[in-house]
Design a protein that fits this description.
By secondary structure, the chain is mainly beta. Helix content is 10%, strand content 32%. A 5-stranded mixed sheet has the order 2-1-5-3-4, with no helix packed on it. It contains 1 helix and 5 strands, in the order ββαβββ.
C-alpha cells in the first residue's frame, strides 16, 4: 500500500501512518499493549475501552495511551 493511501495519526507524540478505517482496537493490538492496563484518550476525550472496536481512526487523530505499572 502506498503512502498516499495511508492516514497520519499521532500516538503519544509520535506520528504514525495507518491504513484508512484502522480501528482503535487494531492500534492497541499493533502496539502490543495490554488492554486491561491502559487508559486511552482520543482527541482529548477519554475512551471507554468497550467501544474501541467500533472507533475508526481518522487523519490527524491524536491518541494518548497511558500504561499503568504496579509497584510497592
Amino acid at each position: 500500500m502506498s503512502v498516499k493511501n495511508k492516514i497520519k495519526i499521532i500516538v503519544n507524540g509520535k506520528q504514525l501512518q495507518v491504513i484508512p478505517k484502522f480501528s482503535l482496537k487494531s492500534l492497541i493490538v499493533k502496539l502490543k499493549m495490554p488492554l486491561n492496563k491502559i487508559a486511552i484518550e482520543l482527541n482529548r476525550k477519554i475512551i471507554d475501552k468497550k467501544r474501541i472496536s467500533k472507533i475508526q481512526l481518522k487523519n490527524g487523530d491524536n491518541i494518548e495511551i497511558v500504561h499503568f505499572i504496579g509497584g510497592g
